[in-house]
Design a protein that fits this description.
Helix content is 74%, strand content 0%. The chain is built from seven helices and no strands.
């Protein structure tokens, strides 16, 4: 019996692709539930943020939002490059994306250090820390995945013909960026809208 060789684009929708789609769908529901809890708690509160907490400062996080969203561009560039057999472009794109994602995560740590409230202060504080912390964990996991893909690219295991790992990582990273748009809009922007 002879195996049928599938084109690269058809193999990309194999187990790894569907596994990542399932993970993304699950994680999207978790974030939707948490953001729903945030807005439900806001609607039930007389004051928002609760406990006299000032709405989050926007200037620094706005800059780092742009940094995080920009981190998807080198991945798109890398994915385009591998389809042309340009593995060097993959390596550069992954490093650039890693640096931008790491900068965002470092800023989140600095932001937590500067926050005048802790996760146990009230429901608002708990939701803020929980949602942003969960997103930060996703960024950290994405950075670790990025390092794995970088290692595979350096070892020559990502080629024009075999690059499902890059594709699946790209799906995850783009998801992390899209989720941040909702988190940023909900937790940072919405408290400023009266």
């Amino acid at each position: 019996m002879t195996a049928i060789a599938l084109p690269v684009r058809d193999r990309a929708r194999g187990t790894a692709w569907w596994g990542m789609m399932s993970l993304i769908a699950t994680e999207a529901m978790i974030f939707a539930g948490l953001l729903g809890s945030y807005f439900f708690t806001q609607a039930a509160s007389k004051q928002w943020p609760q406990g006299g907490i000032a709405p989050p400062e926007l200037s620094r996080i706005s800059v780092f939002t742009v940094v995080l969203l920009a981190s998807s561009l080198p991945i798109i560039w890398a994915e385009s490059g591998i389809r042309q057999g340009r593995v060097g472009r993959v390596r550069v794109g992954l490093v650039l994306s890693f640096l931008l994602g790491a900068a965002f995560l470092i800023n989140q740590g600095l932001e937590y250090h500067d926050l005048p409230f802790g996760p146990r202060d009230n429901a608002y504080a708990s939701l803020f820390w929980g949602i942003t912390g969960l997103h930060g964990l996703h960024v950290l996991i994405g950075l670790l995945m990025n390092l794995l893909v970088q290692a595979k690219a350096s070892l020559g295991r990502i080629t024009e013909e075999r690059h499902v790992t890059l594709t699946v990582f790209g799906m995850y990273w783009h998801f992390v960026d899209v989720v941040w748009i909702f988190v940023f809009s909900s937790l940072y922007l919405s408290p400023h809208i009266k």
